[in-house]
């Protein structure tokens, strides 16, 4: 006598739904800032302490709150202003965050701030979703990740971080909001390359993110570059400086965008370098040039003299300046160099002197 095995009991939650491909209507990805931040998704900003990650968040929030163009867009390009929510577990709202947002020109009516970290539980996620829907919030910044992940989740274990982050991912997909995590880069040796495994926590955090921005140092400049993306281009980046606001009593820096750069000049403060096919002498010259001109325009003859003193030949310097320097003739045979504020294709007289 053959005994048929008993079928396992099926609970309502065990059902796995599937669709025919012919029934699926394709939709385009919805960008908050192309190609850096995607809506309806989790995004990461990763960098070492001191790379102004939180100030960068305030600048992104300010741009969204006013509708002004992104630094990689035409100055005339505008969009409707949007509401944002900054959840910061390290800085105070009154003594730090409000100052940073003010320095970046944010519209205060379109920015919400929370400066007390809470462990993100299912109940907290539900409350956040209510807030996002009520105020039609386009982006939520969770800064830093480790302040909000909670003591019950080991951020180095993929099985725990996946369960935790999937709740926020589902919320982002339901609301269309961009969730942006900020996290520190872990300590590493001087020869270790910057990569997706350089951030604190499990590599699965980068895996579930649709986009990850890495922040590196080039002399006195910071450079943000897209390290990971499921869609759109990666690599390349935009340099920015943190400058004195020049206002008595204002001790918080102002983020100013400088220029778009190639990944070949991305280095972090520990001296790690990304892989590049660019000759090493040219990379060195590009790095030196960005740092030397970061304080403002300088006469071309002065730049050449300083470069020679740094061991950079005239021919290498002239190659390095393309796409990085704008040259202006202020008198016959008298030129001034400055960092280009926009994309290289808009650089005036970039081949001069």
Task: Kindly summarize this structure in a few lines.
The protein is an alpha/beta fold. It folds into 2 domains: 28-214, 3-Layer(aba) Sandwich (Rossmann fold), CATH 3.40.50; 280-346, Arc Repressor Mutant, subunit A (Orthogonal Bundle), CATH 1.10.10.
Report on this model:
It is a single chain. This protein is of the alpha/beta class. Helices cover 28% and strands 24% of the residues. The strands form three sheets. The protein has a nine-stranded mixed beta sheet with strand order 5-4-6-7-3-8-9-10-11, with helices on both faces. Strands 12-14-13 form a three-stranded antiparallel beta sheet. The longest helix is centred in the middle third of the chain and has 18 residues. The C terminus is likely disordered.
List descriptors:
2 domains; single chain; 28% helix; 353 residues; Arc Repressor Mutant, subunit A; alpha/beta; nine-stranded mixed sheet; three-stranded antiparallel sheet; Rossmann fold
Helix content, binned percent: 25-40%
CATH class of the largest domain: Alpha Beta
**Rg estimate, integer Å:** 23 Å
Average pLDDT level: 81
**CATH homology-level superfamily of the largest domain:** P-loop containing nucleotide triphosphate hydrolases
Strand content: 15-25%
Count of structural domains: 2
Q: How does the major sheet shape up?
A: 9 strands, mixed
Ranges with pLDDT <50 over ≥5 residues? Answer: 189-193, 264-278, 342-353
Tell me the quaternary state. single chain
How many runs of DSSP E, i.e. beta strands? 14
Shape: elongated
Strand neighbour order, sheet with most strands: 5-4-6-7-3-8-9-10-11
- N to C succession of SSEs: EEEHEHEHEHHEHEEEEHEHHEE
Structural class: alpha/beta
Distance between the termini: 96 Å
Q: Given the structure, what is the number of helices?
A: 9
CATH architectural label of the largest domain: 3-Layer(aba) Sandwich
Would you give the CATH topology of the largest domain?
Rossmann fold
């Amino acid at each position: 006598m053959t005994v048929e095995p008993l079928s396992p009991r099926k609970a309502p939650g065990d059902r796995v739904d599937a669709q025919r491909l012919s029934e699926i209507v394709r939709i385009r990805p919805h960008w908050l800032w192309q190609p850096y931040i995607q809506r309806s998704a989790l995004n990461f900003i990763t960098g070492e302490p001191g790379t102004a990650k939180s100030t960068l968040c305030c600048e992104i929030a300010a741009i969204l709150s006013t509708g002004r163009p992104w630094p990689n867009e035409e100055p005339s390009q505008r969009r409707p202003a949007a509401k944002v929510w900054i959840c910061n577990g390290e800085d105070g709202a009154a003594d730090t965050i409000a100052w940073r947002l003010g320095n970046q020109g944010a519209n205060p009516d379109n920015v919400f701030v929370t400066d007390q970290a809470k462990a993100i539980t299912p109940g907290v996620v539900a409350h956040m979703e209510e807030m996002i829907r009520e105020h039609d919030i386009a982006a939520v910044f969770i800064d830093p990740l480790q302040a909000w992940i909670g003591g019950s989740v080991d951020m180095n274990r993929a099985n725990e971080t996946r369960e935790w982050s999937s709740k926020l991912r589902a919320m982002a997909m339901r609301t269309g909001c961009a969730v942006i995590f900020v996290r520190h880069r872990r300590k590493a040796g001087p020869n270790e390359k910057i990569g997706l495994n350089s951030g604190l926590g499990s590599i699965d955090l980068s895996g579930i993110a649709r986009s990850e921005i890495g922040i590196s140092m080039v002399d006195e400049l910071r450079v943000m570059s897209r390290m990971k993306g499921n869609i759109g281009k990666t690599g390349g980046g935009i340099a920015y400086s943190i400058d004195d606001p020049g206002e008595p009593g204002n001790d918080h820096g102002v983020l100013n965008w400088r220029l778009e750069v190639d990944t070949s000049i991305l280095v972090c403060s520990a001296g790690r370098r990304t892989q590049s096919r660019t000759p090493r002498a040219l990379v060195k010259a590009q790095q030196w040039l960005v740092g030397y001109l970061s304080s403002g325009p300088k006469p071309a003859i002065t730049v050449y003299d300083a470069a020679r003193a740094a061991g950079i030949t005239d021919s290498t310097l002239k190659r390095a300046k393309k796409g990085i320097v704008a040259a202006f003739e202020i008198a016959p045979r008298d030129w001034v160099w400055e960092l280009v504020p926009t994309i290289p294709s808009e650089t005036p007289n970039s081949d001069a002197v």
